[in-house]
Amino acid sequence: LLLALAAQAAAAAPAAAASHVRHAATCDGCQTTIVGVRYKCANCPDYDLCSACEAQNGNGRVHDRTHVFLKLTMPLPAGGGGGAFLVPNLYAGGRRPCPAAMAARRASSR
Question: How many CB atoms are closer than 10 A to CB 32?
Answer without folding.
Answer: 11
